[in-house]
Amino acid sequence: MSLQDLPPDARPREKLIARGPAALSDAELLALLLRTGLAGKNVLQLAQELLDRFGGLSGLLHTGLDELKAVKGLGGSAKRAELSAVLELARRALAQQLSERPVFNHPEAVQAYLQLHLAHKAHEVFAVLFLDSQHRLLACEELFRGTLSQTSVYPREVVLRALHHQAGAVVLAHNHPSGTVQPSRADEVLTQHLKAALGLVDIRVLDHVIVAPGRALSMAEKGLL
């Protein structure tokens, strides 16, 4: 059942035009993207089912394309592509915000940005936000993959990339596929090694953020820097 098959007072598009997007529920906004449901399941039901399955909008936005492909009704590429496009727009909007203003003015935006980049990945990824002297975003790069206990994170490579970007400071980040954001002893040791290596070239480590779907932890806020 498509949006056009719904009763007029239940159509999200008409409701949005009449009352604005803030008046719509999460399921109604998602239904606008999906447009059609399945046999025996209208598009609003499908949208709500997706939200329930992935833990709301945040969980859905952190879901990978392979996971979406496994959902009945999203096997085609068009809907998955549209959801992926929304995710990329969110990333770019946050990146623009961080490139225009100091990251410390928007700690929540930093964590949201890193969640969108890293939290959905099934494997551990180590990334670095390179910042200018005013602590505005220059670039975000994924430098290493694999658990920190199994894949070495080379301080020399981080320093070289920081010098390449002429960074004045960095924010370190990695994800925990397990879902916990509690830093391990290996996380703490790595942070101190990178802080020392970058300090030799006068580049500050402002934070090390650990992310998982729907949550994030700042090691700086926990006094671990």
TrEMBL record:
<dbReference type="Pfam" id="PF20582">
    <property type="entry name" value="UPF0758_N"/>
</dbReference>
<dbReference type="InterPro" id="IPR046778">
    <property type="entry name" value="UPF0758_N"/>
</dbReference>
<dbReference type="InterPro" id="IPR010994">
    <property type="entry name" value="RuvA_2-like"/>
</dbReference>
<dbReference type="InterPro" id="IPR001405">
    <property type="entry name" value="UPF0758"/>
</dbReference>
<dbReference type="InterPro" id="IPR025657">
    <property type="entry name" value="RadC_JAB"/>
</dbReference>
<feature type="domain" description="MPN">
    <location>
        <begin position="103"/>
        <end position="225"/>
    </location>
</feature>
<protein>
    <submittedName>
        <fullName>DNA repair protein RadC</fullName>
    </submittedName>
</protein>
<dbReference type="Pfam" id="PF04002">
    <property type="entry name" value="RadC"/>
</dbReference>
<dbReference type="InterPro" id="IPR020891">
    <property type="entry name" value="UPF0758_CS"/>
</dbReference>
<keyword id="KW-0645">Protease</keyword>
<keyword id="KW-0482">Metalloprotease</keyword>
<keyword id="KW-0479">Metal-binding</keyword>
<dbReference type="InterPro" id="IPR037518">
    <property type="entry name" value="MPN"/>
</dbReference>
<keyword id="KW-0862">Zinc</keyword>
<comment type="similarity">
    <text>Belongs to the UPF0758 family.</text>
</comment>
<keyword id="KW-0378">Hydrolase</keyword>
